[in-house]
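Look over this one:
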Amino acid sequence: KIVILIFFANLAFIECNSNSFLKFDFEIKRKCIPQLIKVKQCRSQFYKYTHSQNLTSLNQVKNIDSEIDKYLSLLKGKCSKDLLFLLCSNLTPFCDPNSKLLVPLCGTTCKNVQKECGFEIKLLNLSWPKELNCSQFPIENEPKSRCISIPRFERQVPLNSKEIVETFTNINEKLFVNRNLFYLKKCGHLRHSEKYIFINRTGRCALKCSENDLFSRRMKKVAEIWMSSLAVLTFLSTMFTCLTCCHNSKIKYPEQPIIFLTFSYNLYSVSLLLRLFFTRSIVSCDFDQVTNQYILIQEGLENTHCAITFLLNYFFSTATHIWWVALTFCWMLYNVFKVSVSNLTNNSGYFHLFVWLPTSMLTVTVLVLRCVEADELLGVCSVGGQSPDRLMTFSIIPKLVCLILGMFLLFVGFIFLKPEEEKMKSNSQNIFRWSTSSTSKVSCRIGLFSCIYVTATFISIVCEFYQYVNYVRWKIQLKIEESTAQPLVAIFLLNIFMNQIVGINSSVWIFSLDAAKSWRKFFATLKSLCAKKKHKNLMNKQKEINQKTNSNESSKLCTYTKSEEA
């Protein structure tokens, strides 16, 4: 629970509907009439007296009391220990009973609270309220500009036995929390703050590896089985496609980028298989020496297994989308500018540079910015598993740019394809000549592959956008709400499927190139080689037998000759 959300969301409303927040002019000392604080949550906490004009009516006291009650219902997981003091000093400003002057809050205290709560404010997309502009408060407590910074209240009545027991109990509870959850105090804005550890190095809250926050253990198991099944299918399908391309001379430009796109999907599936081989705890968890806890990785460079899976996962996942742009670009050059297959082949190095250079730059950028994170559901190291902003920057935007650019180039290529089709039909005596032409077959194969890719990528972007929009709400859901928002696991499973369906369907594309005939030829050649090798072995064996027979006959002849001479 936190106070930040309600405090900053209702600040303007409180000011408009009550006179609780006073407008101070801290350059002029204002006179005040001391009166005991009647607000129960501020009474006997920091100081005893406030300005009488703050308590002109019973309704006003109840209004302040109710507002403080709203805040205090959320103060258990407060981001700053001085947050309640900040509230009280604004709702019930201190009136010095000796000088009868209002004493404002010290600017250093205000800045400390603003700094300590800055992380929560940023997560909630809020800004620090103008009424609490720290620059308007006195910086130091000086005679000419008095201010309160360390709130103390000295009791004139000694504590009774009941109060001593209550105080001791509260101290014990605080010591227990500080001893066991010392680094959890800045994670109070999270719905399940007890499952997180605040990491000073990153300034963020990390989920304990032994805990389940957004997804239950059963959900994680189902997702892991789903991912492993698809990864195996993707690996086998893409491996079959790549091996087919090795002994098939029909695959030329502008279709050849599909081969490298399929190869990228193959290595992408390897990253998922490595995650399964290394196990979740080894890949996605790391030991934090400060808190002595195993946490879900936020900076994966220190974990070798995480770094390896990230490089394979993110690098080749990005490469698949840029190879799609290269494919559509080659298609446009082939149809619009009538670039020949030989020219495209001779300049293939530029296409590789076009793909691998931006892919490498994006990957290096992620590594330099230390944005490698482990995903809670799958335990895979990639980008955006714990940060919606990084998900948008390094995943959604690159995918969307590649998808839009590729669709534009593909559309241009097919527009210029239609006039060529009509021209060939008019000049041909055979009405079916166009349907059997080489260009028609290439266009059909590229069109089929493009339909699968565009559909899968678009759905994947929608799924990731769903995560981007709702992630903060899932994590920072307030407990006072009746219904708790939960992520739909089906959408995440759909995203896993769409990220691999193109690789799985690569075998469909390769079968359109008479893959069966190619493999029959390959196995026939292999069988022929085996037969030749077997025949050669038989010949060598027969030769050895003949040599052995001749040697035996020679030895017998020598023995017979010696016996006759004797």
